[in-house]
# Entry
Amino acid sequence: MDLAQGLIIITSVHLLAAASPGPDFVLVSQQTLSNGKRAGLLCSIGIALGLSVHILYSAFGLAAVIANSSSALWLIKLLGGTYLIYLGINGLRAKARRGEATTAVANQTALKTIGLGFLCNALNPKAPIYFISLFTIVLSQNTPVQHLLIYGIWMMVLQFAWFSFLTLLLSRPMVTDRFQALGHWIDRVAGGAMLLLGIKVLVSRTS
# Structure
């Protein structure tokens, strides 16, 4: 498969995967609606950077090992599920803000917000199987290393572009003003979703 054909397949598949509701979607929505556009964009950067973890282990063939090793997959599920539950509990504990929205954003550093997105994506237990499925389609033993690098960077660009679009959509004044007064409820609903996702990850079968 040539590079152009591979990029077309990756673009169509990965955009659908990024747009599907999941931990990344919930986290970016919560950060944007609660803390504003800056927080949403920083979180989007972190999520895009989180893909580099999956791309690297896929490049070295570890995706196949993880997907076929119950112990390795169990460890990823444990880490990912625990992190989602941690985010969920923090969301459920959110309190009403009385004119403190800008202070909350200031107190949450850029690095911390990027880190939230990075860990949310990097610890996604479904990623190994997803990357195996996608790379099996576009890669072969004769695929040049530079093609894999291009595929990986392009997927990160797509990931960032989608969540940036979502952030810009949710940060429009009409949307922001409507949800600002309900910020703590947004945090709690998103937290509940994260908590349920984390529990689902932990109780789901590894096979």
About this structure: The radius of gyration is 18 Å. The CA atoms of residues 41 and 164 lie 6 Å apart.
